[in-house]
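Example 3.2
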Amino acid sequence: MSTRTDAPTRREQILREAARLFAERGFHGVGVDEIGAAVGISGPGLYRHFPGKDAMLAELLVGISERLLEGGRLRVSEDAASGAGSPRALLDALIEGHIDFALDDRPLITLHDRELDRLREADRKRVRQLQRQYVEVWVEVVRAIHPDLPEHEARAAVHAVFGLLNSTPHLGRPGVRPDRAETAALLHRLARGAFEAAAVRT
């Protein structure tokens, strides 16, 4: 979800390559030397940036949880500052932001699914706490659009939409990715449809 346009720092390069390698081969299947080689430095040189692989994994998973929450809160504040106060436009902005993450940071989704339990307890709790706060940002917006939707159902719908959007590592054949714009548009329609369906009372 980053909007940075400047060149990544060496630390960011290391994290990006570590995420890719961990996602492809598993945390224990990748050595420090291989991560170093991917960014053009010796394995021992990585220790100037990180004390070890565990620290890289923690920064990746805590970091993306922080960025998602910050991005969600920023969109809420921007909507409030605009004076428009449009919950539907805000929901669209939240969906778009999460789709950007899901399409651009696929290795982090795989890492979260496979390696979260490898984090230290304190880091794992931090990730969970950030994720709960991120969910609540969405729940508030969904219920502003659908006030008759019970809170627990709104929360379940948000989790279901996250599962839908976070399916991106499984899209397309190996080595072939579908068109980004088309995929983003499809995911957006599906997410909006899921929330509308959740609000239908039978």
